[in-house]
């Protein structure tokens, strides 16, 4: 007691309150955060989104440090710009070198440095040479696209190779309408559509500066799939018009600057149920036609950030009841229905975290599935003329959602038995999860 009193009086002599620092990868800010806002030495507190800032290694790629306030009321465009060139016929990945995300490479390098086992460390480091998509999940990140495109352009010119940058467009207002973990920064009620158009315009402005770099974009994970099956959720029915308008705006504007696009189409355990195939094909086809059939829309992306196999050796028990128990079955069933609706039936499939099957207790488990391993490496040898490429879209090691039950974006899927815990906020680095992906990689790293 006396000691405590002595400490108190000593502390009162110190002018500013000295806080303990948050650990590497710990939370250091965000809406409602009352803990430490400084980081241990060697780490910097990096803004991720309005809910979360995280202590990342100081040598990491700098992130925009504040959320951008968006100017109101950009009027909806009345005419749709046309592209200056026609898309190349065939697979847009053919003949291109895929740009490696420096942001992900930095995350992986820092993660490997924290692994003491030499074999695992060496395996972890190999991951930074595997291309992943770069997510633009907040408007503050859009200037970064110009930095990556400039870098890719310089690398292309120095090497004589043609470069392709893979991005994810992910900022619709009222995002993630049937879940909570990835709720976005824009709300429909608060100028969300104008903000979204501004977000797309900012991406387009960067893209225009680098006409020699090819871009492949995945458009808005989960959004249209939610409109197929989740209109019973109030936030989804309320977002229906905004999702359609926003997607239409995105594909028209990105078409005008020659971005090859794949719209997100959920996965086998979602739109792959026989009753969902036709409504899904209908929605994609109708939206595409109404947007003027933008030529650079190449097809659909499946299994984004999910865990399904492309070709399951045998059906995972959780898939029972669905004959389309893997992505190949799903794609083979969906393709003819798209074709008859006039939608281009080409696909890319995320296999980044699909290396281990049989882990889930229910097929709907999507959050940080425990025991997952890195999957098939990106390749154009897909085994199907419908599939342009096997890709890694979710950067493995970035979290699907927090397991902190008091967080604003807590989703129960991130707290269930098959989810790896404790987990930080969606999109931030999850070291323990990454280490498991490395250990369980199939094929091995
Ligand atoms: C998160 C995004 C993140 C993306 C890639 C999503 O689940 O909501 O913030 O950029 O994953 O890790």
Describe the structure.
This protein is α/β, with parallel strands linked by helices and 445 residues long. The protein is built from 10 helices and 11 strands. The strands form 2 sheets. Strands 4, 5, 6, 7, 8, 9, 10 and 11 form an 8-stranded parallel β-sheet that branches. The protein has a 3-stranded antiparallel β-sheet with strand order 1-3-2, with no helix packed on it. Residues 1-18 and 60-76 have low confidence and may be disordered. Strand 6, helix 5 and strand 7 form a beta-alpha-beta unit. Helix 8 (274-290) crosses helix 9 (327-341). Helices cover 31% and strands 12% of the residues. The structure holds beta-D-glucopyranose. Beta-D-glucopyranose binds next to loops. Belongs to the glycosyl hydrolase family 6. Keywords: Carbohydrate metabolism, Cellulose degradation, Disulfide bond, Glycosidase, Hydrolase, Polysaccharide degradation, Signal. The active site is at residues 176, 222, 400. Residues 20-56 form the CBM1 domain. Residues 62-87 are annotated as: Disordered.
Summarize the structure.
GO terms for molecular function: cellulose binding; hydrolase activity, hydrolyzing O-glycosyl compounds. Its EC number is 3.2.1.-. With 445 residues, this protein is of the alpha/beta class.
């Amino acid at each position: 007691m006396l000691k405590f009193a002595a400490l108190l009086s000593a502390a009162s002599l110190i002018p500013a309150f000295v806080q303990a620092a948050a650990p590497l990868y710990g939370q250091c800010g965000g809406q409602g955060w009352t803990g430490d806002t400084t980081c241990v030495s060697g780490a910097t507190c990096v803004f991720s989104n309005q809910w979360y800032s995280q202590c990342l290694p100081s040598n990491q790629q700098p992130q925009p440090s504040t959320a951008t306030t968006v100017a109101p009321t950009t009027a909806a465009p009345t005419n749709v710009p046309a592209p200056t060139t026609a898309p190349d016929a065939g697979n847009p990945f053919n003949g291109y070198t895929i740009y490696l995300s420096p942001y992900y490479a930095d995350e992986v390098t820092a993660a490997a440095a924290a692994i003491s086992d030499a074999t695992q460390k060496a395996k972890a480091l190999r991951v930074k040479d595997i291309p992943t998509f770069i997510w633009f999940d907040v408007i503050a990140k859009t200037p970064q696209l110009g930095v990556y495109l400039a870098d890719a352009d310089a690398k292309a010119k120095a090497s004589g190779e043609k470069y392709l940058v893979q991005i994810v467009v992910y900022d619709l207002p009222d995002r993630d309408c049937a879940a909570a973990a990835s709720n976005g920064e824009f709300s429909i009620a608060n100028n969300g559509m104008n903000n979204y158009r501004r977000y797309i315009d900012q991406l387009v402005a960067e893209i225009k500066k680098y006409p020699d770099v090819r871009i492949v974009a995945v458009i808005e994970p989960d959004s249209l799939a939610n409109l197929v099956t989740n209109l019973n959720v109030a936030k989804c029915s309320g977002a229906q018009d905004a999702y359609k308008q926003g997607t239409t705006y995105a594909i028209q504007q990105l078409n005008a600057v020659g971005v090859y696009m794949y719209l997100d189409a959920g996965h086998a355990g979602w739109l792959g149920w026989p009753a969902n195939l036709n409504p899904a094909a209908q929605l994609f086809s109708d939206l595409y036609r109404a947007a003027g059939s933008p030529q650079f829309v190449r097809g659909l992306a499946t299994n984004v950030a999910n865990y399904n196999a492309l070709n399951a050796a045998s059906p995972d028990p959780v898939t029972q009841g669905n004959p389309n128990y893997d992505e190949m079955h799903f794609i083979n069933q969906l393709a003819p229905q798209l074709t008859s609706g006039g939608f281009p039936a080409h696909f890319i499939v995320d296999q980044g975290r699909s290396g281990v099957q049989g882990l889930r207790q229910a097929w709907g488990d999507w959050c940080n599935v425990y025991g997952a391993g890195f999957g098939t490496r990106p390749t154009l040898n897909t085994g199907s003329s419908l599939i342009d490429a096997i890709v890694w879209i979710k950067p493995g090691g970035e979290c699907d959602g927090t397991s902190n039950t008091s967080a604003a974006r807590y989703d129960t899927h991130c707290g269930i038995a098959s989810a790896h815990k404790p987990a930080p906020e969606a999109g931030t680095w999850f070291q323990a999860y990454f280490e498991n992906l490395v250990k369980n990689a199939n094929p091995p790293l």
